[in-house]
Design a protein that fits this description.
Chain lengths: 79, 172
């Protein structure tokens, strides 16, 4: 009889959720970059700094999610 | 040491190429999340690049430059000239005996060269069919979102002299 695989599946669900969130954050970041570029080319340079701050925040969330995924992965595979 | 890799009892090749199918699903996902994080970093770098460019920005100097003699541009015809630098092509259109307009020839979408469509009386970009008004350079249709930068012209005797650029918002 095969041993129950519950932790594996739970880990996968958590990782899938984190990945979905990362994709959403990335879409926002892509939009932010294109909007900032467009406004920079139109002569509005004041938008650049807030855009960097928001983009850095989104990146940090992505990084945290990656570390979370890495941790879940390490934990589940240790079992 | 690979980027943000947790210390593992396994060598890297065993970690990344597991013989267990169940583990492989984790490897794929971990690699994808790493890729997504790096892409996110790329977006941040892009925003930082824009910030640095905006800090280094210096308002361009627009010298008064003769661009055409009136007798060389008959009504309804055009002349291509460079302004303010030798690599910035502009298009001058003489709309009537006493009126003329000039714009940067670089489309504000992806920089293709716009041309004067005489029958439609507008400036057209052949790349993605972006159309601009001949009157003030605003976008009539297509993907461009910004108007064409306008060259400010002055008549001095029989010559037309470029004296500045109107970028469509606050720059002049
Ligand atoms: S480059 Fe002009 S419309 Fe795309």
């Amino acid at each position: 009889m095969t041993p129950p695989r519950l932790p594996q599946n739970r880990g996968l669900t958590a990782i899938d959720g984190a990945m979905a969130l990362m994709v959403i954050l990335l879409i926002v970041q892509v939009w932010l970059l294109s909007a900032t570029l467009e406004s920079f080319l139109a002569g509005h340079r004041e938008a650049a700094l807030p855009a960097v701050i928001i983009s850095a925040l989104l990146f940090l969330i992505c990084l945290a999610l990656y570390l979370f995924v890495d941790q879940v992965d390490a934990e589940v595979r240790r079992h | 040491m690979p980027w943000f890799r947790r210390p593992s009892s396994q060598p890297l090749w065993k970690d990344e190429f597991s013989i267990l199918t169940a583990d492989e699903r984790y490897v794929n996902r971990r690699q994808l999340t790493k890729f997504l994080t790096l892409t996110s970093l790329g977006m941040l770098v892009g925003n930082l690049w824009i910030l640095v460019r905006s800090w280094l920005y210096r308002a361009p100097v627009y010298p008064a430059t003769p661009v055409a003699r009136l007798d060389e541009v008959p009504v309804g015809s055009i002349k291509i000239f460079s302004y303010p630098g030798p690599r910035e092509a502009c298009i001058l259109v003489r709309t009537s005996a006493e009126s003329w307009v000039a714009y940067s020839q670089k489309c504000t979408h992806l920089s293709c060269a716009v041309y004067y469509a005489r029958q439609a009386n507008r400036l057209e970009c052949p790349c993605h069919e972006g159309y601009f008004s001949l009157t003030d350079g605003h976008v009539l249709q297509g993907p461009p979102r910004r108007p064409l930068p306008r060259v400010l012209l002055e008549r001095r005797g029989e010559a037309l002299v470029a004296v500045g650029m109107d970028l469509g918002d606050k720059e002049a």
